[in-house]
Design a protein that fits this description.
The complex is a heterodimer of chains A (219) and B (244). Chain A is α/β, with parallel strands linked by helices. Chain A has helices spanning 10-64, 76-89, 106-115, 123-129, 146-157, 171-175, 190-216, and strands at residues 69-73, 99-101, 135-139, 161-167, 181-185. In chain A, strand 1 (69-73), helix 2 and strand 2 (99-101) form a beta-alpha-beta unit. The model of chain A is unreliable at 8-16 (pLDDT under 50). Chain B is globular, with a radius of gyration of 19 Å. The longest helix of chain B has 17 residues, at 16-32. In chain B, helix 5 links the parallel strand 3 (89-94) and strand 4 (114-119). Chain B has helices at 2-11, 16-32, 45-56, 76-81, 99-111, 151-166, 170-173, and strands at 37-40, 68-71, 89-94, 114-119, 133-136, 194-201, 206-211, 214-219, 231-235, 238-242. In chain B, the strands form two sheets. In chain B, strands 2-1-3-4-5 form a five-stranded parallel β-sheet, sandwiched between helices. Chain B has a five-stranded antiparallel β-sheet with strand order 8-7-6-9-10, with helices on one face. Chain B contains seven helices and ten strands. With 244 residues, chain B is of the alpha/beta class. Mean pLDDT of chain B is 87; it is low at 1-9 and 180-189. The chains are: A alpha/beta (219), B alpha/beta (244). At the A-B interface, helix 1, helix 2 and helix 7 of A face helix 1, helix 2, helix 3 and helix 6 of B.
Chain lengths: 219, 244
């Protein structure tokens, strides 16, 4: 910015210097957060590889039998649930698979929330839709959301395959007998957890696609 | 550790730290002045909802709730036109080839809005548009698209985190923007060529246009006929060009 006219604008120059040092700090902080996210993602995917493979195998055998996938979560995780659903339905490659997110229909969500309570907004939808070959995936950073645990209870009673994606130490989701496969991002920042949860969801999807691709191979 | 370094390079553009820093600083300044953040993601609407919920309902106790809205419409320009006020911010999360995004970014100057584009990597139209801030995810990977594997989520998470860091420096948030002056349009510097969006036009060579400073009536006799929705470059009360 030094073009020889700085002396004309002493106050602007002074302020620019201050904002400049803030910007340097912000950029450094951004790079460090990106690095932390990358390393958490790397470590989590490496340690969860067997769990992802086994959940993906169980999912693809459900899809083969005509099962459908229901995905749900609260807040930011509800949007990650919607993104994961979109990945199964409209994949960048591979087969399109039947998936729905249970947060999409605000009429259903508000009707249930208003009439039976928010703890039951997902389980009541499973009561209406679920068949024994279906799959339920829920995302939660704490692993403790009551509406997810209640939906997993309902899903397990109806014979669905249940997959939980949690954070921190997994919370109640990791301990629940209703959750057959629980993938945990062992971290304590909601943001970093969600980023790696998205990566886990992606690997799960990739595992399913790879399993299903084997069906196409000529023996 | 080598693999982690590679992962970092993989996960985000090397310049993304600077892009995020500047976008967060400007966003914080706009919020401090009363802006609303309008989020849209034509191809992946869930990402727009995720950005908005971060700001409205912060995960960290004690961080202030900020006005952010997600818009999902077939034509985001049409939906945003009536909602966006001068001083607001529009934020897209979309692929580099998103025509709907490009259209909003072109119009943002006429609406008086600052624009931020969080985008998956790869070449595309974003390289040539006038979005004020472009925050790109790293290398284009057809096998693992940024919109699906968490890399775009990371970018808007960090944007939120940095924006709140800026609020710890309230003195810096009230300073006027410093104009870079390198574009063909510079509202701060001069009337060299301000962007206007045509609201109504008549056959006698007059048009009512929306600009960052409000509505005004301009002379359109020296350009070809203008239609409602056209973007024009205004100089001294006259349309001097219709933007392509």
């Amino acid at each position: 910015m030094s073009d020889g006219t700085d002396f004309l604008y002493p106050f602007i120059e002074a302020d620019e210097r201050d904002a400049g040092s803030l910007l340097v700090d912000l950029a450094e902080s951004a790079r460090s957060k990106v690095a932390t996210s990358a390393s958490l993602r790397s470590l989590t995917l490496a340690s969860a590889r067997p769990a992802i493979a086994s959940a993906a195998l169980a999912m693809s055998s459900r899809f083969r039998r005509g099962g459908r996938l229901f995905v749900f979560g609260n807040g930011g995780s509800s949007t990650d649930a919607a993104s994961l659903t979109a990945l199964f339905v409209a994949p960048p490659w591979g087969r399109s698979l039947p998936a729905r997110d249970l947060v999409d229909d605000t009429a259903v969500l508000t009707a249930l929330g208003n009439d039976v309570g928010f703890d039951l907004v997902f389980s009541r939808q499973l009561i209406a839709h679920a068949q024994p070959d279906d799959i339920a995936i829920a995302l939660s950073t704490s692993g403790n959301s009551r509406n997810l645990l209640s939906a997993f209870g309902e899903a397990a009673r109806r014979g669905l395959l249940t997959v939980g994606i949690a954070g921190y130490s997994g919370g109640d989701m990791a301990r629940s007998p209703d959750v057959e496969h629980c993938l945990v991002v062992d971290a304590d920042s909601v943001h970093r957890i969600q980023e790696t949860q998205a990566a886990l969801g992606f690997e799960l999807w990739r595992g399913v696609q790879r399993d299903l691709q084997r069906d196409e191979e000529v023996p | 550790m080598a693999s982690i370094v590679e992962d970092v390079r993989d996960i985000a553009d090397p310049d993304v730290g600077d892009a995020l820093a500047l976008a967060a600083f400007v966003l914080a300044k706009r919020f401090a002045a009363g802006a609303t953040l309008w989020c849209f993601a034509p191809e992946w609407p869930a990402h727009a909802r995720h950005v908005a919920v971060e700001f409205v309902h912060p995960v960290l106790v004690g961080k202030r709730a900020l006005p952010a809205v997600s818009i999902h419409a077939v034509d985001p320009s049409c939906a945003l036109r009536s909602l966006v006020r001068p001083g607001d911010v529009v934020l897209a999360v979309s692929g580099p080839g998103s025509a709907a995004t490009t259209d909003v970014m072109r119009r943002a100057p006429a609406w008086g809005a600052t624009s931020i584009w969080i985008t998956a990597g790869g070449g595309g139209s974003h390289r040539h548009t006038s979005a004020d801030h472009i925050v790109p995810a790293g290398g284009h990977d057809a096998d693992s698209p940024a919109e699906h594997d968490g890399r775009l989520v990371l970018l808007y998470h960090v944007l939120w985190e940095l924006t709140h860091v800026c609020f710890e420096h309230p003195g810096l948030l009230t300073e006027p923007d410093v104009c870079s002056g390198d574009g063909e349009v510079c509202v701060t510097c001069s009337d060299e060529g301000r962007v206007g969006e045509v609201i109504t036009a008549d056959s006698r060579g007059w048009a009512r246009v929306r600009t960052s400073g409000g509505d005004e009536v301009i002379d359109t006799t020296i350009v070809d006929e203008v239609a409602v929705g056209d973007l024009v470059l205004i100089h001294a009360g006259m349309a001097i060009a219709v933007l392509p």
